[in-house]
Amino acid sequence: MGSASKQTQSNKSQGNKPSAKQASNDRRARIAELRAAEQRRDRRNKILAGSVAGVLVIAAIATGTWIVVDANKDKKAKEAAAAAPIDGVQTFGDLSRNHVKEKVTYPQTPPVGGDHNAIWLDCMGTVYDQPVENERAVHSLEHGAVWVTYNGKATPDDIKTLSEKVKATPYSLMSPYPDEQGTITLNAWSTQLTVDSASDPRVNQFFTKYVQGKQTQEPGASCTMGAM
Amino acid sequence: MTATEESAEPAEDVAATDRAASRRRIWWPAALAAALALALGVPALVAGGTSASGTSSVSAPADDSPEAGFARDMSTHHQQAVDLSFIVRDRTSDESTRTLAFDIINTQANQRGMMMGWLDQWGLTQHSPAKPMAWMSMGGHGHGADYQAHDGSLMPGMATNTQLAKLRSLSGRDAEVFYLQLMLEHHKGGVEMAQGYVDMADNATEKRLAQSMVAGQTSEIGLITDMLQERGAAPGVPAS
Question: How far away is chain A from the Cα of B236, in angstroms, using its nearest Cα?
């Protein structure tokens, strides 16, 4: 403290009588001040430039990511269209798949799965005029076929339209089913849709989604008649 | 203060500014490169992440592409070759015919499985409401798409249901000859469709399989022609 006051005094005395040394000290102080100011300005500019660059980089990443995510979304939407849920389709969960010789009582009419006969029904776009055996048709469903059934309310036009569709579609079959509730029923393994008319757009949707669709229990299995 | 002293100080400052500027010049390219890498890399990671975790890759063919169309239609075409071959194996004991049929069953059933598997991986359905071979019109092979489906014959070379029933009713040499005649037409239609896809293919793996079909079935067309000749029969399918 004593030395500090002494220093101040000596500074004062020197201040009264400026010397070359004093001028040099002043200049150094000014330079230091200027450099400090320069450094502050530099730091400010760096922070500003860094922030701007950061914002730009984040914006670029966000834009790029958005483009990719958006493209993926479009693709998902397209895929979904190929396998989108169809209004009114009922599903029935896991059903048994044993081969049996006797008649089976099925909970659904027409049946869409459960135990069945060892020999499936020819389903290479096959149209049957007469009712077929449940136990054999169910085996065809297991192989990925769509089974079209209709009752007495179906018009000749309905039957003609559906027959043409089935004949052009391997892994589908069609037969009358007088006991069913709905006019026209589309059956796939554990899956069912009832429509009033063959012109219902859901008929084509059902074919697209379920002919050898994801519900198929044995992908790659044959639809050609088992007994040859 | 003298004039020389005055000018000396800014000179020092200029030198310092120059050094700083040169440091900045070195810093900027590196920063720019890093920013670019981030801007490109992060979305690429997002894209890569979804393709790895999702059911299909970003490059999966479209539902109406030749890739999907060929996979679907050739699967249907192949299935009938398998069916024809199973029938003849039950109708004759001739070794050479049964061996050819055995070969066709295994080859075409396995190829069918490959094509169905691709459709599954691409997230596409096995069935399409499009007309058989509609995809071929995209490549100028319009005639394939113009084929009039009739009696179960959905594409060029496919036998009708009536012809299948007739084959089931024949036996011995008659069954062999009719099978060989049907199979000859079936292979001709198959080669035409496979070549149609090869000409417009966008998928190297699928193109390779189609090329193997062209080569394999062309070679079998020669074999079948010889087998018909050995049996004293003409190649054409007789009208039934």
Answer: 25
